[in-house]
Amino acid sequence: MTTQAQATPHEPPGKPTAASRTTLSHIMTGNDTNLLGTVHGGVIMKLVDDAAGAVAGRHSGGPAVTASMDEMVFLEPVRVGDLVHVKAQVNWTGRSSMEVGVRVLAERWNESTPATQVASAYLVFTAVDENGRPRPVPPVVPESERDKRRWQEAQIRRTHRLARRRAIKELRDRRAAEGMTED
Ligand SMILES: CC(C)(COP(=O)(O)OP(=O)(O)OC[C@H]1O[C@@H](n2cnc3c(N)ncnc32)[C@H](O)[C@@H]1OP(=O)(O)O)[C@@H](O)C(=O)NCCC(=O)NCCS
Questions:
Q1: SS3 sequence, the chain?
Q2: pLDDT score for 9
Q3: Number of structural domains, the chain?
Q4: Residues 105, 118: contact at Cβ < 8 Å?
Q5: Is 124 in the pocket of ligand 1 (CB under 6 A)?
Q6: Is residue 61 a part of any domain in this protein?
Q7: What is the distance between the alpha carbons of residues 61 and 140, in angstroms, rounded to a whole number?
Q8: Residue 182 within any structural domain of the chain
Q9: What pLDDT score was predicted for residue 10?
Q10: Substitution site in 65, 91, 92, 126 for ligand 1 pocket (most atoms within 8 Å of beta carbon)
């Protein structure tokens, strides 16, 4: 069984979750709105990808590309004048990939009311070398109970991603073998 942050002889040494945890903060302006006048979901997704990319780069010590983004959930609308905080951390590491968990909080820029969570997302980043090929990443070492729970949940998502990808590939291969054609 794979255990948390288990190292093999060729793996780089582990790094604690806290070492690369990052917050990106941004005030929303009129340039960020959709037709309803609230902030466009794509603006938030870009900030999420930016923060997650910074965390993946810090953890892996070099370039990392977005391989997938899943479970992006928008809980509340974000408004012009909101100060948005995008909090990201590496939840889990594989050989060359990392799951990054992101929470998005918003508060009025000029009020001292508590920030509320408006969105969350999980992304997979793959560390790449100068030729764009996957390279090994240090195992993340979850230290707090919260980080250990997030590692375990990320492992479940990883299993589901792989199973889904395999099932879809098998279906397509089967349809192709049966001579099914599409327009
Ligand atoms: C991500 C990428 C480097 C993977 O390359 P690849 O040749 O398929 O490499 P592999 O199949 O060996 O996968 C490498 C790792 O990425 C993971 N991975 C690859 N595709 C994935 C996907 N769609 N979802 C989740 N993880 C994925 C693999 O599980 C593997 O993880 P592991 O090493 O921890 O076990 C390649 O697909 C790529 O360059 N994609 C474009 C990335 C990009 O440009 N992003 C920005 C978009 S604008």
A1: CCCCCCCCCCCCCCEEHHHCCEEEEEECCHHHECCCCCECHHHHHHHHHHHHHHHHHHHHCCCEEEEEEEEEEECCCCCCCEEEEEEEEEEEECCCEEEEEEEEEEEECCCCCCCEEEEEEEEEEEEECCCCCECCCCCEECCCHHHHHHHHHHHHHHHHHHHHHHHHHHHHHHHHHCCCCCC
A2: 56
A3: 1
A4: yes
A5: yes
A6: yes
A7: 13
A8: no
A9: 64
A10: 126
Residue-number span of the structural domain to which 129 is assigned:
15-177
Cα–Cα distance list, 48 to 53, 61, 173 (Å): 8, 20, 34
Ligand 1 contact via 144 beta carbon (within 6 Å): no
In a domain, 33, yes or no: yes
In the block, which residue shows the tokens 């920030």? 115
Q: Is residue 5 part of a domain?
A: no
pLDDT digits 0-9 by tens, 30-88:
999 999 999 999 999 999 999 999 999 999 999 999 999 988 999 999 999 999 999 99
Cβ atoms of residues 83 and 27 within 8 Å: yes
Using a 6 Å cutoff on CB, does residue 66 contact ligand 1? yes
Task: Give me the CATH number covering residue 135.
Answer: 3.10.129.10
Task: Confirm if 106 and 86 have CB atoms less than 8 A apart.
Answer: no
Six token digits for residue 38:
């609230």
